[in-house]
Specification:
- This protein is α+β, with helices and mostly antiparallel strands and 224 residues long.
- It folds into two domains: 62 residues, Antifreeze-like/N-acetylneuraminic acid synthase C-terminal domain (Type Iii Antifreeze Protein Isoform Hplc 12), CATH 3.90.1210; 112 residues, no CATH class.
- It contains two helices and seven strands, in the order H-E-E-E-E-E-E-H-E.
- The protein has a five-stranded antiparallel β-sheet with strand order 3-6-5-4-7. Strands 1-2 form a two-stranded antiparallel ribbon.
- The longest helix is centred in the N-terminal third of the chain and has 34 residues.
- The protein is flat and about 90 Å long.
- The protein starts with a helix and ends in a 6-residue tail after the last strand.
């Protein structure tokens, strides 16, 4: 009985000792972390104001902030002249770091600079009334094949509208990115959508455009 009591006391004392050691280690770690230096400051180019996707950066859109070296993101710029003139692939919030991966490659074409990796821009004519969709909306592409029993298939789902061409008054339009609607064969009364289609779906959309009647349905905002 006494032997069991002594063994229990030894276990209790051992547990207390381990708990004390653990507390001291945690305290030491916290003290070291709170007193650690984040490193010297480095210049990082950030957005001075909100910038939309597809916008060409100008000097007024940018400013230089000083960030701890350990927190500076990979691919950041340290001079405003470096990203100035480049096209944004994603929207930037004020104070957000401008990095190489968020900008289109140098000397990219007006459309290619807006197409993310893994997607392709395809022009799809529609019967939509002018002004019914804007860039950033999402649509489904439907193909209706004629025959004894006409059938309709969905050939692309939830694809993003990159540009709306051949409409009047809405922005941005083809002219905003340096494209000539007349040269592209797009009439003023028609609405052609430039859609961002996954690479795996582009052949199906092109085949449907050549052999079927194409229309689109507009996805609700909550599905975007």
């Amino acid at each position: 009985m006494f032997r069991g009591f002594r063994t229990s006391r030894l276990y209790l004392l051992g547990s207390l000792a381990l708990a004390i050691c653990a507390a001291l280690l945690v305290r030491s770690y916290v003290a070291g972390a709170s007193g650690a230096s984040p490193g010297p400051g480095v210049p990082v180019v950030v957005a001075a104001r909100a910038v939309e996707r597809g916008q060409a950066l100008v000097a007024e859109d940018l400013r230089i902030d000083e960030w701890p070296a350990a927190l500076a993101p990979p691919g950041h710029f340290d001079q405003i002249s470096q990203p100035a003139g480049r096209i944004t692939l994603a929207a930037l919030a004020p104070g957000e770091a401008v990095t190489e991966t968020r900008l289109a490659r140098v000397r990219a074409g007006p459309v290619a600079s807006l197409v993310p990796s893994g997607l392709r821009a395809l022009a799809v004519p529609t019967t939509l009334p002018a002004g019914s969709v804007v860039p950033g909306d999402h649509v489904d592409v439907l193909a209706t094949y004629q025959g004894e029993v006409p059938r309709t298939e969905t050939v692309a789902t939830g694809v993003e509208v990159l540009l709306v061409m051949g409409r009047g008054g809405a922005e941005p339009s083809m002219s905003d990115v340096g494209l000539d609607a007349a040269a592209a064969g797009i009439g003023a009364g028609s609405t052609t959508l430039l859609l961002l289609v996954p690479v795996a779906e582009q052949a199906r959309v092109v085949a449907a455009r050549a052999t079927a009647s194409i229309d689109v349905s507009i996805a609700p905002l909550e599905d975007d």
